[in-house]
Amino acid sequence: MEKKRENVVRGGEGPDGKRDCCIFIKEQMLITVENAQHLSWKGKKLLLEFLVGVKDSCQFLMRNPFLSGLLQTNDKVALKEITRQLQLENVVGDKVFGSFAENLAFLLEALRRGNRTSSCPVLFVLDEFDLFVHHKNQSLLYNLFDISQSAQTPVTVIGLTCRQDILELLEKRVKSRFSHRQIYLMNSFDFKEYIKIFKKQLSLPAEFPDEAFAQKWNNNVQHLSEDKTVRDVLQKLFQHTKDLRSLHLLLMLAVSAVTTHHPLPTAADLQEASRQHSSDSRANIVHGLSVLEICLIIAMKHLNEVYDGEPFNFQMVYNEFQKFIQRKAHSMYNFEKPVVMKLELVKPLERPSARAQREYLLMKLLLDSSQIMEALQVYPNCPTDVKQWAASSLSWL
């Protein structure tokens, strides 16, 4: 077996370099035994489709089991899907597997049959690779990586993920069987090219039935691309992410404002689309809370500031809430603890047991201080003293 390599192909090398690297990986699988690969960032599936579609001089019929972490939520379901895609149902017959280990042992034995020259190469593709990492004991990953080092069956495992820290999530025994070959797919175009993409995506094609309207529409798009307000919106999105799916979503929101009475998109439409696109879903939840729940959120905010983000329990939150009530002496905010405990905008650090008291479970607030303050600015009819409490310094506690 060829000595393991540690190659990293980054976005600066261009699409041709990435494709050549993928073709090399495929050729190595066909003529020798390779280890697992890892693709991250944008364009993963497009590059993978190119890789699988390349015609080889080798006369092998390569099989490509495709698994998704969103669908195969545990190793047992993943093994059944692998068995189906490798067309091993007839081999299985009516055989009933008593355990996951027995099912896995059968599958691995089927893959090990034959030798390097007669066995059919198998390319395993694991989409949403980071979700497979969270399977129990990472058994599937360990065994797939392990069999890829076998000298009997040519096997390659390619994982697709958007997480750059994926290697840190692998167990030591799994990481030791990984080839450490990673391909980073990053968009390398600049803002001028981004504007060209914007115009191309928004323009109507030449074969559009109404030529007069298409001409009018495309002239408007050209005008928008030169408008300073529109460029500021695009610059903000470009600096946040170069992912073209975000641009498509922005354009979809802007175009959805087009009607028979408003036939052409305007700079104001793009501004509103940008506001909707960048809106904070968690902060929006605050707008639907009661004054009591707002007070509890503010109490959690102050606890985060005092204890530097350390987890807290509900009793601590309730005590801070009581301090505020005593200072202001407003009976309208004085609620009993069972009523107060109904709030659900926090995340427990561990699964609560039947014996544990809810008020002493450690929790973490799912909002940061800036989100809370922004939400309070637009909260309807928020009492003044509550806003002052939220904006108060640590010395006020």
Content-based structural category = alpha/beta
Low-confidence stretches: 1-13, 26-36, 54-61
Q: Considering the protein shown, what is the CATH homologous superfamily of the largest domain?
A: P-loop containing nucleotide triphosphate hydrolases
What is the terminal separation in angstroms?
A: 66 Å
Q: Give the SSE order as H and E letters.
A: EHEHEHHHEHHEHHEHHHHHHHHHEEHH
The largest sheet has its strands arranged as 1-6-2-5-4-3
Strand content: 5-15%
Number of contiguous helices: 20
| Helix percentage range | 40-55%
Number of strands: 8
**Main pleated-sheet profile:** 6 strands, parallel
What integer is the average pLDDT?
A: 75
The CATH class of the largest domain, by name, is Alpha Beta
The CATH level-2 architecture of the largest domain is identified as: 3-Layer(aba) Sandwich
Tally of separate domains: 3
How are the SSEs ordered, and which strands pair?
Layout: E1 8-9, H1 14-31, E2 36-41, H2 44-53, E3 66-68, H3 75-85, H4 89-92, H5 100-112, E4 122-127, H6 129-132, H7 139-147, E5 155-161, H8 166-169, H9 172-175, E6 178-185, H10 191-202, H11 211-226, H12 228-240, H13 244-255, H14 267-277, H15 281-286, H16 291-306, H17 314-328, H18 337-340, E7 346-348, E8 363-365, H19 369-377, H20 384-391
Parallel strand pairs: 1-6, 2-5, 2-6, 3-4, 4-5
Antiparallel strand pairs: 7-8
Helix pairs in contact: 1-2, 3-5, 5-7, 10-11, 12-14, 13-14, 16-17
